[in-house]
Amino acid sequence: MDEIKKYIDGNKESFINELKDLLTIPSISTNAENKKDIEDCANWLQSHMHDIGLENVKTYQTEGHPIVYGDWLNAGDNKLTILIYGHYDVQPVDPLDLWNSPPFSPTIVGENIYARGATDDKGQAFVHLKSIEAHLKVKKKLPINVKIILEGEEEIGSPNLDGFIENNKDLLKCDYVIISDTAMYDYDIPSICYGLKGLCYMELDVTGPNKDLHSGSFGGAVENPINALANIITKLKDEKGKILIPGFYDDVIELTAEEKEEFRKLPYNEDEFIKELDIEEVFGEEGYTTIERKWARPTLDCNGIWGGFQGEGAKTVLPSKAGAKISMRLVPDQEPEKIEKLFTDYVNKITPKSIKVKISASHNAKPAITPIDNDAIRAAMKALEHGFGIEPVFMREGGSIPVVNTIQDLLDAPSILLGFGLPNENTHSPNEHLNLRNFHRGILTSAYYLEELSKINN
Ligand code: BES
Ligand code: ZN
Prior knowledge:
Blueprint: H1 2-10, H2 12-23, H3 35-51, E1 55-60, E2 67-72, E3 81-87, E4 107-109, E5 112-114, H4 122-139, E6 145-151, H5 161-167, H6 169-172, E7 176-179, E8 191-196, E9 198-207, E10 213-214, H7 225-234, H8 257-265, H9 270-277, H10 290-296, E11 299-307, E12 317-318, E13 321-330, H11 336-350, E14 356-365, E15 368-369, H12 375-388, E16 393-396, H13 403-411, E17 415-419, E18 433-435, H14 436-453
Parallel strand pairs: 3-6, 3-7, 7-17, 8-16
Antiparallel strand pairs: 1-2, 2-6, 4-5, 5-18, 8-15, 8-17, 9-13, 9-14, 10-12, 11-13
Helix pairs in contact: 1-4, 1-14, 2-4, 4-14, 5-13, 12-14
Bound molecules: ligand BES and zinc ion (ZN).
């Protein structure tokens, strides 16, 4: 391993330069105009994976964006086979004017590299490619069998991945799945994540009168769709943060006293949290701590809202239309489809006759808890300790990674969530970045991990 570490240390700069190339490609999965960029990104990865020595490297087309696959399966049957998953698509960049450097011109400031996708997830996925490269260049082999898939639709809910996995069970068959698409607990606290929230994402399109009206002539006599929508949204959650949709909490598994105690043991400073976000106080469901709210309680949030006149100055108008996008983050054992129905029934019930509401669902993801009592977790703890020189902690997350459940169901393989990001790296927001020291420590950890996993008998 010394030689491998030497290779990783010696190539620090060139790894960063390669990451810069990858981060230059604007592979935004939601935007139709970025389709070509998504293809370019898949091609870049395909040739890079080939260059570092992976075999059977291939881009699989789907009805949406392509999936890039590669493997190295020459370690023998008595060695484990892992599947590394990552995603190369990124979120949109707006609002663009809040970025300090252009989102697709990777810029290093201090220890950080700034670009859309730096931490979510190109930088984190790249960690594993570099560790594989180090093993293959130095030892001409990997200590275990490795498969890797990089998808281009994670940020839009992985609509074509389930089908791909279903149709390629043999190709993807593995003992464990390794995913680096979460954050560490803190800068010097390496972590294994064992819980992700699910997601149910809805859109409300409200229509009042069939055209915009003069707000003086018609105001007071005709319902305003923006006012009506605001009323509907207000009725979804009370002032203490409790969600008011009947049946919403029915399947929620309450935290055990032990788990609460584990959460409480983690270092946490609420004042710092408040200060960093420039808020006066935290807000959330009554009776739970901030960590419990973030990791283990379901939530409901308006992600976007529109309607009426948004231009400069005042235009007196009673608009015809208004709309909102609302997400609900779910915890075990809430089912997105069931929540979708409860939400729809409730909104229909509270919608006044004076307006029409169209309710539609976009992507869903199931919540996940991954097992932590297995050899691959124990190996991950050792690898993290080796890579960071610090003992790791267990944590949960509020975000979602749809594939974790699919893989559990279709391939019967547990996921190991090894995050190398940090909680304040502006995921999905302007000035997204990745800490380059963690990028380096991540590569070392991944390299040690392959070695640790080879000690497990298959
Ligand atoms: N990397 C995130 C998931 C994540 C976010 C994990 C925060 C831990 C903390 C992932 O790329 C993501 O953003 N997922 C989406 C999934 C959705 C579109 C189905 C999410 O959580 O919004
Ligand atoms: Zn994301």
